[in-house]
Each structure stands twice: as structure tokens, then as C-alpha cells.
Input
Amino acid sequence: MTGDRTARNTTTSNWAYWAIPLIVLGGLLWYLFANLPQREQVAQWPTPPAQSQSVVVKGVDVKNTLGDSLSDLRASLQSITDVESTKAARPKLEAAKTLIDKVSRMAGQLTADQRKTITEVVATAMPTINRLTDKVLEIPGVSDVLRPTIDPVKTKLADLSGQPSTVGSGR
Output
């Protein structure tokens, strides 16, 4: 029996040895966190995602029309590898030219904010279009087929972007 009491006393004292500091630590943490100044939480409405401004004139979404024509122009220029591919790309280039002409004619009806939006769309696309144009015009024979379509397009885009035209300057 003496051995059982010794085992019980050792178990009880080991348990008490760990439990008492944990209880004290828990009480101390509760006291500290319970007395922290409470922050008032204010409900905030989520910020709506930034939406690009639509530019509509007489029922025509000018921004999307311009964006589509610039995409078609880029794709057409990327497809050009020789004179034959230039001839094949010419109908799409002409269609893009027609849409860009239409946007250019509507530019006078745009508000200042709408004009800024159109300027940004064109300014973003111009470096790629200039690079692609320069590349294809270096292909032998392509310049004769492409220039009658691409020069007026680049001039209109330069006008829409508010930048000086580089047509005829060797670019």
C-alpha cells in the first residue's frame, strides 16, 4: 500500500506542477486581452471593380469598334510574310481602315473624357502597330501593296492619339 500512495502523490504533484502555471498564464492573458481598447469596426462597402468607360456615339460603341479594328489590324499585319500574304491580308486591312475612318469621323462628337479614353486606346496600340508595320514594310515588294492602305490608317491613328504622324518619316 505504501507504494500506491507514493505513486498517487507523484502523479498528483506532477499534474499540479503543470496545471497551476497554465491556469495562471491563462488568467493573465484573459486579463490583458479583456482590457485592450476596443476598436470600433465600421462596415465598408466593397469597392466596385474599375470599369472602363464606354464611349457611345449615335448608338455606336466607338471604343469597342476601335479596339476591334486595332486587333484586326494587328492580326493582319502579323500574317504578312511576303507579297502574296499581303494581298490576302488586304481585305481585312481595308475593313480595319474603314472602321478607323468611321471612328475618326465621330471623334468630333466626343466629350473630353470620351476623347481621353479613345486616345488611351490608340496610344496603347500604336507601338505594336508601328513595330509590325515597320517589319512588314521591309519585306521586298510589300511596301507597294501595303502603303496605300496602311499610311492613311497610321495618319488617322496618329490624329486620334494626339501624336504627330510618322508616315513618310522613314518609320
Observations:
- The first helix runs from residue 2 to 34.
- The two ends are 106 Å apart (CA to CA).
